[in-house]
Amino acid sequence: xxxxxxxxxxxYDKDTGDIASFKMFFTSFNPSLCLFANKYLNDKEASNDVVxxxxxxxxxxxxxxxxxxxxxxxLYKYVKNRSLNxxxxxxxxxxxxxxxxxSEVFFRDNLIEEETYQxxxxxxxxxxxxxxxxxxxxxxxxxxxxxxxxxxxxxxTVKTLKLRAFHSLRKELxxxxxx
Length: 179
Description:
Blueprint: H1 7-10, H2 20-41, H3 44-60, H4 68-89, H5 98-101, H6 104-125, H7 129-139, H8 144-151, H9 155-173
Helix pairs in contact: 2-3, 2-4, 2-6, 3-4, 6-9, 7-9, 8-9
């Protein structure tokens, strides 16, 4: 999703009930927010609950939000704060280093990590289906011959697909790397 989306595209139209922009926003950010919350909570169910609460919060403020960037900012800060509150509430049940995970450094590092995953995921979606599959299997730790066996192609085909996929990924991700 582009962060340059203007306010008219972002607003919920109460007259028509058109919620397409919010649905697209939810679909784009829900997975990375769940991963982000889980960095704090180490509990997938609790992370999903926190993220769901965050989207409800943003939905209630949807008509006040002017850009995707500000909505993302609301979400990440809300998830961070809710996660920390959850951990404080669970303090007697679980031992956490709240000082460390409440720090801005922890927040920044995890935010950067999730944004990076999101960029890579978007770039992977632009590969050919075979290229996507080869890269996914490579990331799962499979060797070229194992990928070939699974996809029923030769090892040379795997190498070629991998080479083309990495070339495309480098090209697409190049603009997102700070030099």
